[in-house]
Amino acid sequence: MATVSKEDYLSVIFKNLDDKNEVKANVIAEKLSISNAAVTDMLKKLSNEDLVIYEKYKSIKLTENGFLYAKNMVRRHRIWEMFLHQVVGIPWDKVHEEAEKLEHSSSDYLINKIEEMLNFPEFDPHGDPIPAKDLKLPKQKKSVKLSLMKINQKGRVVRVNDFDNEFLSYISKIGIELNAKLKVKEIREFDKSMHILVGNKDWNISQKIADNIFIEIIDKGNL
Amino acid sequence: MATVSKEDYLSVIFKNLDDKNEVKANVIAEKLSISNAAVTDMLKKLSNEDLVIYEKYKSIKLTENGFLYAKNMVRRHRIWEMFLHQVVGIPWDKVHEEAEKLEHSSSDYLINKIEEMLNFPEFDPHGDPIPAKDLKLPKQKKSVKLSLMKINQKGRVVRVNDFDNEFLSYISKIGIELNAKLKVKEIREFDKSMHILVGNKDWNISQKIADNIFIEIIDKGNL
DNA sequence: CTTTTAATTTAAGCTTACTTAAATTAAAAA
DNA sequence: TTTTTAATTTAAGTAAGCTTAAATTAAAAG
Question: Are A12 and A69 in contact (CB under 8 A)?
Fold first, then answer.
């Protein structure tokens, strides 16, 4: 049986898979703010339900079923985010935590209806791809971290990490939103902080900020 | 702490208060499909949290806090129903069970936003009043059960009970919706079934159906 | 007023999802 | 290769929200 708790485990596992498609139990415990012992417990249950591959002392993998379940959770989450942002008008930095609750309480029927109403969006308000009904992901535009851009390069915001509300709220305040154009004006080597132009305003941003904004470089056109 | 389970208890208690503003533990158990022993257990907890007034072997009352909490649950439920029906286009007979899940997973902030977006509706898709932010109920139009109408009386549907999906789905199919006009053409005494005119079509409905539809009688005008 | 019936409570036990503390294992460092 | 460290598991225990069965109480019927 799928409970809120199990759904959270599957989501966390999915989002933290490494290059070998594995996660350490360790990581799951941290992300969910629970003890390692609790994770061991639950992994045995998820394994019995054919959702994860679990062997003592080894890293965790998802089964085929587990992958499908987790992707569907991502789908629910991102469709809710899109809906809350576009239709209800909830600001960028608040949609994540509302969607976090709603994703456990909505039938596939409802999600499909909402998706239809939104005209089958491909990306959520943070630029993350929304899995389709068949759980396939749309292609994403090539992008680089803002922190890796060079002086005088221009680009368009295509994705931001939604790891922290304060971060989202801050970048939103300085005019950084999806598709916003910006230009790198200075980079200070000693702390890698940047001076950027967003619209017609100048801002200083730390490396940590720039690490979480993804840009599609544009060569032509003015800012 | 407010859990899904506690919220369900409070909702059921609120919806089943008698003329003395009391409910028997018995009734709660039936409505929630759980044992009486479980109800006793939970009532003690709710009492400790100052949500219900509980004394051994006596009927249950809500405290001031309990009333507020329960009314807010009703508010959440009905705003979700309205939203799902009007904005997402979910049919009449399906909104109830979706709202039943969503009502536990939405912040007051979100509910207020949705309410604003809907332009502060007073009644949900079944004609039930939606408590405002201050939890006050809008005034309802005077209405009578369809089953109590006389031959040749005309009226307008102002509310239906949403106790059963099949019922809602059926009456929707025969053209009965909020504000629909109808006229009683015949009443068969032996089973109290009725012959009614809805729009320009005739239908036979059982007493059980007619018991769950509420009508505002209209004297003038044609059908 | 006493008996019967129905509602309620108590008691013991279960499952889920957690906790802490101790034991074990695997991986990294010496 | 041995030792140390870090990750993981086991064991024992807890709280929430249920269950069934037995005991108690209140209300209804005689």
Answer: no
- Chain B residues within an 8 Å CB radius of A113: 88-90
**Mutation choice for A interface testing from B81, B84, B95, B113 by most A CBs within 10 A:** B113
Residue of A nearest to B98 (CA): A106
Closest CA to A51 of A19, A10, A11, A14: A10
User: 């408590």: which residue's tokens?
Assistant: B131
The answer to whether A87 contacts B113, with C-beta atoms less than 8 Å apart, is no
Residues of A in contact with B101 (CB under 8 A): 105-107
Find the residue closest to C27 using CA and C1' atoms.
A57
Buried b / exposed e along A20-44 (16+ C-beta atoms within 10 A): eebbebebbbebbebeeeebeebbe
Contacts of B88 in chain A (CB under 8 A): 110, 113-114, 117
Helix (H) or strand (E) holding A215: strand A213-218
Length of chain B: 223
Spans in chain A with pLDDT lower than 50: none
For residue B223, what pLDDT band results from cuts at 50, 70 and 90? low
How close is the nearest chain B Cα to the Cα of A72, in Å?
18
User: Do the two domains B4-62 and B144-218 of this chain adopt the same fold?
Assistant: no
Whole-number Cα distances in Å, B174 to A44, A149, B201, B202, B223: 52, 64, 8, 9, 16
d(CA B207, CA B158): 18
How do residues B152-210 score in pLDDT, each as one tens digit? Answer: 999 999 999 988 889 999 999 999 999 999 999 999 999 999 999 998 899 999 999 99
Domain boundaries, given as residue ranges, for chain B: 4-62, 144-218
The CATH number of domain B144-218 is 2.30.30.90: yes
Q: Does domain A4-62 match CATH 3.40.309.10?
A: no
For residues B195 and B204, is the Cβ–Cβ distance under 8 A? yes
